[in-house]
């Protein structure tokens, strides 16, 4: 039995109604657990890119890839290699502040190259991008001040260098 690992799949699909439902239904039917799913337009009109993060072993990833390729609007499925991939997630966190501790909260954000995007008398909203481990580390620091609210996106990812999913022009 192989080890369960963090896997990022990049999937090009036609921009058609119901494609997200079809993809998630495949995961549900097969009993695979999605860690995150992000869908967005690409540089090519009519083509969207899904970035799917799954915690699974190699056999399950192979099965997921085969099942995704069977869905008609799916154009291409690529398992991104962690060593050659740039992956980032977005997080916004509302942190309790007072006049006394606000400078410490802002300093913590600056250390993690995060931005303060809103300030009120009792809180600040911080926006950060990075790897899941960087975002977790920022949260660990901010938890001492008290987190009021938190929202995170799933990861998005691209291969390093000139290699692309799109056909060369």
TrEMBL record:
Protein name: Acetolactate synthase small subunit
Similarity comment text for this entry: Belongs to the acetolactate synthase small subunit family.
GO molecular function: acetolactate synthase activity; acetolactate synthase regulator activity
Keywords for the protein's UniProt record, in alphabetical order: Amino-acid biosynthesis, Branched-chain amino acid biosynthesis, Transferase
Pfam families from the UniProt entry: ACT_AHAS_ss (PF22629), ALS_ss_C (PF10369)
Catalytic activity: 2 pyruvate + H(+) = (2S)-2-acetolactate + CO2
UniProt function note: Catalyzes the conversion of 2 pyruvate molecules into acetolactate in the first common step of the biosynthetic pathway of the branched-amino acids such as leucine, isoleucine, and valine.
Entry's EC annotation: 2.2.1.6
Pathway this chain belongs to: Amino-acid biosynthesis; L-valine biosynthesis; L-valine from pyruvate: step 1/4; Amino-acid biosynthesis; L-isoleucine biosynthesis; L-isoleucine from 2-oxobutanoate: step 1/4
PANTHER family: ACETOLACTATE SYNTHASE SMALL SUBUNIT (PTHR30239), ACETOLACTATE SYNTHASE SMALL SUBUNIT 1, CHLOROPLASTIC (PTHR30239:SF0)
PROSITE patterns: ACT
Cellular component, GO annotation: cytosol
